[in-house]
Structure formats: C-alpha cells, structure tokens
Amino acid sequence: MNFELTAMDADGAAHQPCDVLLLLLASDVKPAPGVLSTLVEQAGGDLESKAGSLLDMYRPNGLSCKRLVLVQSASGNAHDMREAVHKAVTLIATAKPHNIILYFEKTPSSQALRVALTTLAEASYRYTTTKGEKTEGRSLENVKVAMPDTTALNKAFDVAVAAVHGIEFAKEWANRPANHATPTLLAQAAQSLEKFPKIKCRVLDAKAVTKLNMGAFLAVAQGSAQPLQFIVLRYNVHGKGRPPVVLVGKGITFDSGGICIKPSPDMDEMKFDMSGAASVLGVFHALAMLQPDISVVGLIPACENLPSGHAIKPGDVVTSMNGLTIEILNTDAEGRLVLCDALVYAQRFKPHAVIDIATLTGACVIALGKVRSGLFSNNTELSAALQAAGESSQDLCWPMPLDEDYAEGLKSNFADLANVAGRPGGVITAAKFLQRFADKFSWAHLDIAGTAWKSGDAKGATGRPVGLLLDYLLSQDTKA
Ligand code: BES
Ligand code: MN
Ligand code: ZN
Questions:
Q1: pLDDT of 131-184, one tens digit each?
Q2: Which domains does the chain have, with CATH numbers?
Q3: At residue 145, what are phi and psi to the nearest 5 degrees?
Q4: Which residues are placed with Cβ below 5 angstroms of ligand 3, an ion?
Q5: 251: CA distance to ligand 3 center in Å?
Q6: pTM
Q7: Concatenated DSSP letters for 34-79?
Q8: 442 C-alpha to ligand 2 centroid (Å)
Q9: Which residues contact 404 (CB under 8 A, 6 or more apart)?
C-alpha cells in the first residue's frame, strides 16, 4: 500500500479520479465553497454529528470519483478520528477499492493524522501467508492523503507511514503459525532487514549461547527440537557513536507451558508469544525507512517452550549469565528466563537505556485489559518519555509499581531466586524478577500480554507496541 501526501483544496479533490473519495468532515469547519460543500449542505442533518457517521453516494454528479463517502470526524481528536476512519474503511471494504483519497477538510493534528493512517491500515489489513492461493489480500494500493495545506505535517506523515510499515511487519511475523515462524525463520526475517541501510544482524546459535553462559535461556530451549537463536540487530551502531537504546523482545515462538503445560483451549494463541520480538523487528523496519540519527540495538532470545524428555522440570536450578542461580518452580514462567540472560547481555553495549518488550503475564491482562500495556521502569525520566510516546502514537501504556516488598515471594530455599512468586500481583512480581538483571542501566519493561493481539472473531496480532517504541526512539533524535 502506497501513501502520498498532497495539498489540494476541496474542489481539487472533487476532480481527482479515484475509486472512493473519503471526505472527513469536522464539526467546526464548513467546506470551502464548491461542488463538495454544496453536497455537504444538501446532506444537511442526514449526516449525524456523531464521530463515525457516514453518508454514502455513488457516482455523484460533477465529481470524478466513483464513490463519495462523507465521514463525520466530529472533534477531530484521536478518538473521533479512529472511529471515523475505521467505520469508513470498513464500509468500503466490500467494494475492494484500489485507489482512494482521504481528504481532510480541516488540517488534522499530527496525532490525528497518525491515528487516521494507522487505523486505515488496520481496517484494510488482510493476513494471507498461510491461506490458500485463492485468498485475496488487501485491495487498497494507493492512498492519497489530501488537505488544503500540508506544510506542518510532512514529518508527521513520514513517521505515520513508517509506523504503518513497521506495524505490518510485526503483525505478519506475530500472526504466522509457530511452524511457519520458528526461531530459525525469525532469525532469517531479522537477517532480511540487512537489505536496508545502517542495519546489521548477527545470529548466535546454541554453541555461542552456551559459551556466554546463558543458562536460563538454554534451559527453556532444551525441551524443543527446534534450535534456539539469539538475534542481535544493530541500527546505526558504531564504535564512537552515542550510547544506544537496547530493545529486548521476548521471542518464544510457541509457549505450551512446558512440563507445567497450559490447558488446551486457546493454547493456539501462544504462537503470539513472540510478539515482543516481532515488535523489535517492526521498529527496525520503521527506522530503516526514516533513517533517524540515533543508535539502536535489538536483542531477541528466540526458542520454543515445549514439554519433552529433555525439558526442564519444576524444581530444576539453572545459572544465568550474571551468575545468579534460579529455581524454576513453574516452567510456564519461561519468558523471564529467556529475557534475564538477554538483559545481562545488553550491558556490553553500555546502553543509554534498555527496554524489554514481552507478552509476559496473564496477570497483566487481568490488571490492564487490552487497552494499555503495563510499563515498569527504574528511571523516572525513561518512564515519562515512554508514557509520552504512548500518547503521541496512541499506543498506550500505564505505569506500574516496583516496590521492593513485591520481590518477597521470589525467595528460594535452593537458589538465589525463584522464577515465580504467588498469584497476587503476578504482573509486578514478574517485573521484579527481571529487575534483578537490570541493575546496571536505565531499564523499562513493557508487558504487552493484553495489547499484542486480539482474541475471538478478530483474532490476530495488533503490531503493538511498535508505534510507542518508534515515537520514543525518535524523541531521542536531538538533531531532528
Ligand atoms: N506467555 C505467557 C503469558 C500470557 C498468558 C500472555 C496469557 C498472554 C495471555 C507466559 O509465559 C506465562 O505463561 N506466564 C504465566 C506466569 C505464571 C506461571 C507465573 C501466566 O501468566 O500464567
Ligand atoms: Mn509461559
Ligand atoms: Zn510465555
């Protein structure tokens, strides 16, 4: 799907040939006099004032589009814009349009433009990779984004387009079934990003990981026949550059729970347990498109969590890369085990900040639902910057506590710490576990268990939190 930003007035839009012209109306702005304003006037009260109200017209007289849809975006804020674009794109989907114009009668804010483009992409997205040959993908090919004046929005437009591509790259890999997204295939996807400027990728195998003493990561991987992969991506990282931001993505390509096996219903959804990893891949894709002047490292410990004769057992004690021993009381708390070694590995980059992204706990879904990701951090400035990025991208998160008292339950009689505490505050005790391995740098942890995918009829990856991470990283580009 190609996006193009063009300045034109309403009359210009009316005379552009296209399959559909989506005319976004705001409650406080009347269209400039012309054929469109006449139509809007004639529509009168038939177009309701509620965001997302639509009025659909075929081959309207004097217009060059095949179809005109009047779309009410009401206040034009992020919420109303999402509602408006979602309803409009869903309405026209059945007609399978190829070329559309999204015309803003009133110049949107950067945030509203971002929401409009990501919502348009989301509403027109079709997964096809493992469907039969007859399955049609997205019909949309060209989207002309038009408004009277574009001068203030060029940068926001480029970021929005890059965010869409990053989100869709993340969705593609998260949506693929586990047998089509093994650790090896994930590593190949990461390596494919080397085709872009400034991106380098190195993949460590089990032998290299053993040499690094990543005993916790190795322990999770040992139950599976699929070889583990430790993926190291770099964007613009070189010797004397500034300290990089390190992103660590949980890459469990399938989480059965291991010996502490999960119940069968909904277990298929555990193919999404590499959504953190997918978001790191998506962010690198977006960085490649925008080429900002920052340095970013991406680390992905990728493996499966399966039961077998080789699998770890409850009570097993393993040693992580920093020498701490861990009693594995529950083999289903595997995410923190692969992440802790990656966090220790992150130290070698002398990072400005380390952010891990993980579908870590069912408890996070209970605490925050599917609206906001859980945010934990040992640094208030980093936490504030991530919250701000969540707002600007409308990829929301919410700060959670890290009081030391929450670590009480992680004590073990047989190791330095246990990998689980009791059920209360499970989202926090998981973060407390990770924090033990993140004491040498500014660190944040995003629990995306609730936000990374949707269940039910709309089952599928969301591509979150690519938007949030991208806005945070761009905010670190002081020259921009
Ligand atoms: N990948 C799961 C977390 C998860 C569960 C994400 C449900 C989304 C929906 C993680 O590896 C896990 O199994 N966590 C356990 C931890 C528990 C054993 C302390 C959980 O949340 O039940
Ligand atoms: Mn698990
Ligand atoms: Zn998991």
A1: 999 999 999 999 999 999 999 999 999 999 999 999 999 999 999 999 999 999
A2: 2-150 (3.40.220.10), 166-475 (3.40.630.10)
A3: -100, 115
A4: 252, 255, 273, 335
A5: 9
A6: 0.98
A7: SHHHHHHHHHGGGS-SSTT-EEEEES-TT-SBSEEEEEE-TT-SHH
A8: 26
A9: none
